[in-house]
Amino acid sequence: MPSRRRTLLKVIILGDSGVGKTSLMNQYVNRKFSNQYKATIGADFLTKEVQFEDRLFTLQIWDTAGQERFQSLGVAFYRGADCCVLVYDVNSMKSFDNLNNWREEFLIQASPSDPENFPFVVLGNKVDVDGGNSRVVSEKKARAWCASKGNIPYFETSAKEGINVEEAFQCIAKNALKSGEEEEIYLPDTIDVASSSQQRSTGCEC
Predict the structure, then answer these.
(1) Which of 43, 67, 139, 130 is nearest to 96 (CA)?
(2) Domains defined for the chain, CATH in brackets
(3) Contacts (Cβ under 8 Å, ≥6 apart) of 143
(4) 35-57 burial string, b = 16+ CB within 10 Å, else e?
């Protein structure tokens, strides 16, 4: 039997603390939302398998801490990324204003081979809050910023309601795929007994 082949795509989610990075990741991977998330310490990641054109890809999504005291951990986590997701809260102008800082920080830390064309995706999260009445960042303003940075794809999302989350991550996966820095993973059809228990423990129920 031929080996099955998967490609690992590494995605980094950046943005201020409290904008909903963890919630977005969990809504996409596990289809769950919780109000009980604690602030991410350092970084954490989840994986989800996605299929494009009869090929199987493993999306490895890194959720990073928004607090400044953890930003020094960035280099190790950012390196090798295939796409960077910038998240802000549409109800917080400060979180939107900080998108530029996160973008610059990523480019410095990750040192992508082609920074001008590295794929970013911007998510304006929490559009559900107060029925949209507490919103302070307009869609027009956000789209103008994305256009000024090389036409970055933009989605308005609600991790709580699941609005646009699937669509946004499909775009993220496609952009990660285009970046071309793929890492092939070869999975044999037979798995030795010693490693099978370890594989089960690290597997992701999607």
Answers:
(1) 139
(2) 4-202 (3.40.50.300)
(3) 154
(4) eeeeebeebebbebebeeeeeeb
Tokens coding 7 = 């490609």
| Whole-prediction pTM | 0.80
Contact 28, 169 (CB under 8 A): yes
Residue 109 CA to residue 201 CA, distance in Å, equals 31
Quick one: three-class SS letters along 123-137?
EEECCCHHHHCCCCC
3-state SS assignment for residue 57: strand
Strand partners, 155: 123
In terms of phi and psi (left: phi > 0; alpha: psi -120 to 50; beta: otherwise), the region of 151 is left
Q: Based on the number of CB atoms within 10 Å of its own CB, is 186 exposed (0-12), middle (13-18) or buried (19 or more)?
A: exposed
Q: What is the mean pLDDT of each run of 10 residues along the chain (206 residues)?
A: 66 93 92 68 76 85 66 70 96 97 92 93 97 96 97 97 96 86 44 39 37
- Tell me which H or E stretch contains 148: helix 139-148
